[in-house]
Backbone:
């Protein structure tokens, strides 16, 4: 089940090629590396910012045209308007699902579980390819522009990560766009740093929230985090913010079509509620509880539906996927067009009171949509949130000074319908984020609670929009279980620092309630896709287990220092392990473990054949010095390297020998057999390892290392 | 040189007492622990918030009275005004230095290097005691209220850390304020988590910057950071923000004397510059360079002056310290009163243009101070920044729409004088922060550059206040070398997100320039105080060294499993090591390392004597089960436990034996002898260890641990 995954390895493999490379490095080389790193941070920022601008521009323009066309046609006939609306949506969704199924299968979904996995140490095949990037960008234009119940924020994070990873390889190898000159980030560790930057850049671009982006990356990458990296990540996010801001101010002059104020999430609610009283804490806590419940339910439902899709539907090939997405598109269009038709229009509020046009002028974005209303001074409250772009709908739900704009009935209808649509849409083969749908759902019930608060606490200065915002935070908290970064993102996208304590309260409640039922959305989905995430803390029972117990009755596959090629090949064929201890005879005849050799390195050696020797005795270290560079051992970024089945060796070759000593990692981390598994877990997780040797207790201590020994100056 | 320091140990010591305690724990216990942790986070937030409010209230009122009194007296005679001004300042500074020297010596200075050390893994004696807390609070009221060139922000961070640590012990042991009931955070690791919360709370309180607080704690504690902790830390900061905000809105009604708008740093520059053009990037980069140069110079000068103070002045006892502080106070008062007298007053600008009163009404805070001016509609630009509280001075320097308020000559005079004062004041025996002085210095030259920009780029929409802000950021960046957290703090204290990219640019430049010359202020000071900080990355040359080489020709002091008490005592007397390997005979006569025993645990055992036995053979594990609880081994928070010299043993006792097996840590981390020191460094730093054993290569591998083995479900 699930895509092929493989662990990443953040350890430094100190084999001879590495040591040789280290020895060649001078001062200039370091300066150069640092400069390239910062240059890359800059480029990632610019790239992600431009991608975000492009996606937003396209989406805003497509939906702008769509609504303008529909609104102008329904002046004459509603049925033709409906048809046009459905067809435009269908065309957009079809293009998206077609791109994904035929060109970039890894671009389906939000991509955040996979990126989270990558940063946790597991590589899913294909998520960081060039075609995935292209598929993600164009696919999400289609799916979001086509009005499905999904957002573009998750895909933007994935886009940022792809851009970063591609830059790290110096371009795409397959499409011959790469440059040797920039080809210097070769270890998993360097790549992970870049992907971290890209991930933060994606969040920063999606929400125009540079600090939130850094914290998002940080919350997902809590192991192995250095302040140097943090500064670079922050720089990238700031670059994104600058790019996005410049593009928007350039667009202000009207050069970008329908891309006006909208597009980039910023729901400014700075003219909202200034103060809150103690009585309001109860309804806010209730919002938190609702968020926790609905969020956990969302995770559970999407889990079932994804399972069902995987095991029945998507097995039947891409035609079914395309048909499914198109069907959902038609249903979504029909509901969002049809339901508002059934709703009675309400008279406009006194326009003096709030300064918002009602109904909104034709061809504009805004609040108070006049849709299927008999009189002129009327608006349709359901259409205002349902028959609108999601960004506008959220702005309308968050809007301050618009008391009683929505009836409870409309909000409830919308909540039920949209929640169902969001669940059903989840898992179709299009790029899809869950942030914006989550905000829609949350702000609907938040506004509902706000209406009751306005009714019951009449004398307080309550704003329904503030409650909508808190509802949005609560649903996201209840579903995704993010904490600090979500808080900061909410503050940044609403531009209102005063609500921070309230958002935090709501998040505390909703996360606690949600955690009671199940794991977060991304964790659930990662598990389903077979991405084994390691939590930041060991489980409780691991404290009472030893490392030896964790290995159970494992029969360790080892190699001697000089191994027959034939044996090597058959051992590699007979098991799936990716690392093997290498054992040698010491002077006194006792055995000594001399290191760890990786399957991927062995395959490189078997393929090149230059190191085969006829003698079964160790060669001197000199013999191999010129045959391999460090870059020969670099894993291709697509993660699927050669496998042992691809290697063809003649009978003669199989009789030769191979001395593994120069190619192994001479000092993998070891733990004594009775160390508790909790401590082993910390070691593994904190250092981002792939293999740990469990060894017998040592016979003596050759030295002690304390802080004093590590304070050496050169 | 320096206070006695001792390493902290974040490792779990899995001795029998620990295992027994683990076995007793049930589900309820875990729920209880989690609740207590959150309760503590809440309490730390409230405590730190209240302490901050108290300090601010006191400082604002003292300086309010001081300036009111002085201004009303100088209506009659300037000399009497001068005397009153000097005497009030002197009294305040004297009280501060008296408290510090006679009651809480660890409260001197900013405390940030010590806290940074604590979070890095080194405990300085006495920094987290109750008396230090009290001394810090009252001392900083005196020193800041007394008008010295120092701030209250560093001390607030220290205050937060003290509150957290005291709460963790359930109160102060010495003053019998502790409660057994809350006494549950007994390992260094739990304490460090609390101190992290406290540190963030302190920053949040000092700058009203909750996000900045979290990031500050994060930048200083990059090793060992979990997202769970982050959420708690953030919660604490938010609580602080709520407490401070409530207190301020309570004070708005005038119940708090002179504590009006001032006190809590928020220099709102939201009506400043909206846009910037490319030509401005050059002067901004110049500000960055100046900041780097002046900051690095500041670090160097303060290093020399602190060295000199330590080796000559402060050796002579506390009288000299008191005299020194008083002298500096008199000099500071004289300069800040006298220099503005020499300055010619300028005519007020057209009051319509900017809406700020000029000159400010008597008895008020504000801009355009009328001091020693002959005419009514005049102000003294030097007095506006020099003869004022620091908060007001900064607000005046940051002020927008006040072109040409200051003459270049005044700014230069102030810059030189204040820089000198800040350097000279640094290291006196009073609580002292460097943030506010840094902001003063930086904003002065920033404004100076801004003046030139206004002059040369006439047509641009330039605000001098924005340049002052950038100058402040550049000086702090050049001196303290903080990055992300400084950026966020600057944004939060000026409430202006739009300047983020500019602040970042300036910080990038100033940090790079500063790093070229020396280390950051806190690192330099920590080194001087003998606090050995471990950087987050190993040094380059460590990649070419092995662990064995780092231990050189160390003769490891080991103990056998059953050791004669006499031998134990003499071994402990003869060396200073804090951890000892314990070696036993295996079944076949070969030796086996069975664990690590800590000096502090041995001393507890020697003192209690209950485990002494007359037979030289191992006792069964049953024999000891009831003699010790885990809490017996807990280190007292004051870090200075009993030493071996305090132990009195009779001749008979010395002949007995002690079986160490139940008390040792059976599985310390080990590294093979030829692992590169860089890898050992990472292990040590990332896991927060205190001891690592260097052992021979293992003879065989009993098992492999990979990700799959750690994904166990119960
Ligand atoms: N050389 C080996 N000999 C015996 N057992 C091994 C060996 N290497 C790994 N194992 C065991 O086999 C199981 C699967 O190992 P594998 O090497 O596939 O690791 P993994 O967790 O799947 O990660 P990845 O394959 O992505 O590195 C684990 O339980 C591991 O302990
Ligand atoms: N049991 C021991 N036998 C021999 N040498 C040791 C032993 N323990 C430590 N050392 C060495 O002695 C030196 C000082 O050790 P010490 O135990 O004082 O550690 P430290 O770095 O000062 O930290 P702290 O004392 O705060 O734990 C170090 O070089 C260390 O390697
Ligand atoms: Mg595997
Ligand atoms: Mg020592």
Residues:
């Amino acid at each position: 089940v699930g895509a092929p995954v493989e662990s990443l390895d953040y350890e430094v493999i100190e084999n001879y090629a590495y040591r040789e490379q280290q020895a060649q490095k001078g001062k200039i080389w370091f300066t150069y590396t640092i400069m390239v790193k910062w240059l890359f941070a800059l480029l990632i920022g610019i790239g992600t910012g431009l991608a975000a601008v492009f996606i937003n521009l396209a989406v805003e323009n497509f939906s702008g045209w769509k609504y303008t066309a529909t609104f102008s046609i329904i002046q004459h006939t509603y049925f033709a308007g409906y048809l046009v609306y459905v067809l435009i949506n269908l065309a957009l969704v079809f293009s998206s699902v077609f791109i994904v199924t035929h060109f970039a299968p890894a671009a389906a979904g939000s991509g955040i579980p996979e990126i989270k996995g990558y940063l946790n140490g597991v590589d899913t095949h294909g998520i960081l390819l060039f075609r995935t990037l292209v598929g993600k960008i164009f696919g999400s234009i289609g799916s979001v522009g086509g009005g499905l119940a999904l957002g573009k924020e998750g895909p933007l994070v994935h886009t940022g990560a792809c851009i970063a990873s591609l830059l790290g390889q110096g371009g795409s190898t397959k499409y011959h766009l790469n440059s040797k000159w920039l080809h210097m980030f070769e270890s998993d560790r360097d790549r992970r740093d870049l992907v971290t930057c890209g991930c933060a850049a994606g969040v920063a671009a999606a929400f125009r929230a540079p600090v939130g982006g850094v914290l998002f990356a940080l919350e997902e990458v809590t192991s192995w985090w250095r302040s140097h990296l943090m500064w670079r990540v922050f720089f990238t996010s700031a670059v994104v913010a600058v790019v996005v801001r410049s593009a928007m101010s350039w667009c202000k002059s009207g050069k970008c079509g329908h891309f006006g104020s909208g597009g980039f999430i910023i729901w400014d609610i700075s003219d909202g509620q200034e103060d809150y009283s103690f009585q309001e804490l109860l309804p806010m806590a209730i919002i938190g509880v609702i968020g926790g419940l609905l969020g956990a339910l969302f995770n559970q439902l999407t889990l079932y539906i994804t399972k069902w899709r995987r095991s029945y539907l998507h097995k039947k090939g891409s035609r079914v996927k395309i048909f499914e997405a198109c069907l959902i598109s038609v249903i979504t269009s029909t509901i969002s067009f049809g339901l508002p038709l059934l709703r009675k229009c309400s008279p406009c509020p006194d326009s003096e009171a709030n300064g918002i046009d009602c109904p909104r002028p034709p061809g504009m974005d805004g609040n108070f949509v006049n849709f299927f209303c008999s009189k002129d001074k009327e608006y349709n409250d359901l259409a205002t949130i349902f028959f609108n772009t999601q960004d506008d709908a959220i702005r309308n739900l968050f809007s301050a000074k618009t008391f009683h704009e929505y009836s409870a009935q409309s909000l409830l209808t919308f909540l039920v319908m949209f929640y169902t649509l969001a669940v059903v849409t989840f898992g179709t083969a299009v790029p899809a984020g869950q942030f914006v749908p989550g905000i829609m759902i949350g702000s609907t019930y938040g506004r509902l609670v706000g209406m009751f608060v306005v009714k019951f606490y009449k004398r307080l200065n309550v704003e329904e929009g503030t409650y909508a915002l808190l509802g949005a935070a609560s649903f996201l908290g209840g579903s995704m279980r993010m904490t600090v970064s979500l808080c900061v993102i909410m503050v940044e996208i609403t531009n209102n620092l005063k609500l921070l304590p309230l958002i935090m309260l709501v998040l505390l409640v909703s996360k606690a309630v949600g955690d009671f039922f199940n794991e977060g959305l991304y964790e659930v989905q990662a598990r389903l896709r077979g991405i084994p995430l390691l939590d930041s803390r060991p489980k409780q029972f691991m404290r009472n287990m030893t490392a030896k117990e964790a290995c159970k009755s494992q029969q360790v596959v080892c190699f001697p220092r000089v191994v027959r090629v034939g044996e090597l090949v058959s051992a590699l064929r007979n098991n799936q392990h990716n690392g093997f201890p290498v054992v040698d005879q010491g002077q006194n005849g006792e055995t000594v473990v001399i290191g760890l050799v990786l399957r991927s390195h062995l395959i490189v050696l078997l393929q090149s054949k230059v190191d085969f020797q006829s003698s079964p005795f160790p060669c001197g270290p000199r013999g191999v010095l010129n045959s391999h560079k460090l870059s020969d051992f670099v894993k291709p970024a697509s993660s699927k390297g050669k496998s042992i089945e691809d290697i063809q060796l003649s009978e003669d070759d199989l009789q030769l020998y191979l001395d593994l000593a120069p190619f192994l990692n001479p000092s993998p981390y070891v733990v004594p057999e009775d160390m508790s598994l909790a401590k082993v877990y910390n070691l593994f997780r904190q250092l981002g390892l792939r293999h740990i040797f469990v060894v017998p207790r040592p016979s003596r201590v050759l030295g002690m290392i304390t802080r004093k020994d590590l304070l050496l100056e050169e």
Summary: Chain A has three domains: 5-251, 278-528, 543-710. The mean pLDDT of chain A is 86.
